[in-house]
């Protein structure tokens, strides 16, 4: 609807400024106050729904039923986002969904994630954007560390197999960056203790190397 209206303003009214201002106010009012928001709890729901829509667009299981493609969906979302109040609510939900996509390896691509982050640059605070980018950077560092870990493991196994070792995928992240926090203490199954301790050994070695410079 917004795209059609924009074309009408462009072709039929030569982008008349006063008309565009009035239309923007009307869009802002409608996006924040409509039948859905009135029923479900106010304008805050619009921001939450936009974040959920973005999450659907940016997941690997994206379906064309939502939009023809991720890029088109992002473009449509940003048009609506301009008129949404409670942008801080959007940022909170978006950050949580971003973290979940990255940790669970559900993101469609880092390029698409960065595209949304760059689109939000004009409306979100620098702190918010910095955290989003830090999560992407932290995950890339974790993947790089995992690569080194598996190389180190291969060398270990060539010299001497590790008894009771079970192949696992462990991602080490900076807890100060990510909004996801454990709800309870992690209890490692007995079968994985050797694998976890082996990763700890490698990680400790890497930390010592960094400290030594």
From TrEMBL:
<dbReference type="InterPro" id="IPR045093">
    <property type="entry name" value="Cullin"/>
</dbReference>
<protein>
    <recommendedName>
        <fullName>Cullin family profile domain-containing protein</fullName>
    </recommendedName>
</protein>
<dbReference type="InterPro" id="IPR036317">
    <property type="entry name" value="Cullin_homology_sf"/>
</dbReference>
<dbReference type="Pfam" id="PF00888">
    <property type="entry name" value="Cullin"/>
</dbReference>
<comment type="similarity">
    <text>Belongs to the cullin family.</text>
</comment>
<dbReference type="InterPro" id="IPR016158">
    <property type="entry name" value="Cullin_homology"/>
</dbReference>
<dbReference type="InterPro" id="IPR001373">
    <property type="entry name" value="Cullin_N"/>
</dbReference>
<feature type="domain" description="Cullin family profile">
    <location>
        <begin position="45"/>
        <end position="206"/>
    </location>
</feature>
<dbReference type="GO" id="GO:0031625">
    <property type="term" value="F:ubiquitin protein ligase binding"/>
</dbReference>
<dbReference type="GO" id="GO:0006511">
    <property type="term" value="P:ubiquitin-dependent protein catabolic process"/>
</dbReference>
